[in-house]
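Budget justification note: compute hours in this period were largely spent on complex prediction jobs such as the one shown. Inputs:
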Amino acid sequence: MTTPVVEPRQHSVTFPLTARRLALGLTALLSLALLYFIGVDQGATSLFGSDTHIHEFVHDARHFLGFPCH
Amino acid sequence: MELRHIYRGLGVGLLGGLLAFVFARIFAEPFIQDAIDYESGRDAAQDALDHAAGLGHGGAGGHEAAEVFSRSVQRNLGIGVGMAVFGLALGGLFVVAYLLVSRRYPQIRPRVLAALVAGAGFVSLYLVPFAKYPANPPAIGHEETIGARSALYVTMVAVSVISLVLAVIAGRWLAGRVGTWNASLLGAVVFFVLVGVAMGLLPSFGHLASNKAEYGTFATETPQPLRDARGVIVYPGFDADLLFRFRFYSVISQLILWLTIGFGFGTLAERLAGAPARVRAPRPVTGAAAADRPSAAAASTAS
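Corresponding output:
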């Protein structure tokens, strides 16, 4: 007789893609991508194969900003 | 609404990066050049030693062999673009953190929140990782360990940021129980314990297996004096004063960047929010909130 009622809990898991979330998410993502290219790419890992143009161009900045280099 | 903040965050980040570049170009570049000259001289001395020992020349200066950009381009343009883009990216991360926190705690005044978030960024993204793995000038760092060093550095940054978030959450939780001041101090203790444990667990660069095998047991990869077969020093170790100068200026340039972001964005955010001393509609103060913010409670009772 006392069948447990399943409460609809959708309201607690919905995650609407609002303009605000989109803006914040994109900003964070692009910032992290830029940091990756300035700090890490073409040293330990490389997205464009064995090319060192980015690495050599920002070489001094990479050292000075504290990223491991060479 | 958020876009106006985001544009300003990116703008102050770019400005901070450019200011840090001006500082770096004037004060740090001479030392970077000294470090590169040391590396060239050491490579030449190593070649001479190898030649005398009949080894032929093994690792002929990796730098000069594959020079893609001239020193002049690297010194003037490359470091400028690199630091400006770095500033832009940090401005982006900063403004995202600022907007997330300001929505949760709208009662914090914009310029105060901007200063707090910028301070948190400086400490967690740079200063704490620097304490374990400090910035190194050219000539320090073995090419074969770049993968391990990058992974360790990124790990240290991630641990530091996560520890700071956990410490802030712990502090907020404690604030209703022991008061804001004590909760802040306890939050700081949580942060230092977490990053301290991580620093203790992560290996030093010099203690990586390949470094130990090739160079012996040293804590860092800083070049040691070069000795010939009889043990006579033929080329000195890396200059300690030069190393200190480079690292000290590295800290100062990051400070310039974060101060620009924190105070620059704070000023702009105050303008966006209207007059800084705007009058708020009085709202009921709950018990927990009153304990958090005695000044607000006092203000509401006074009015």
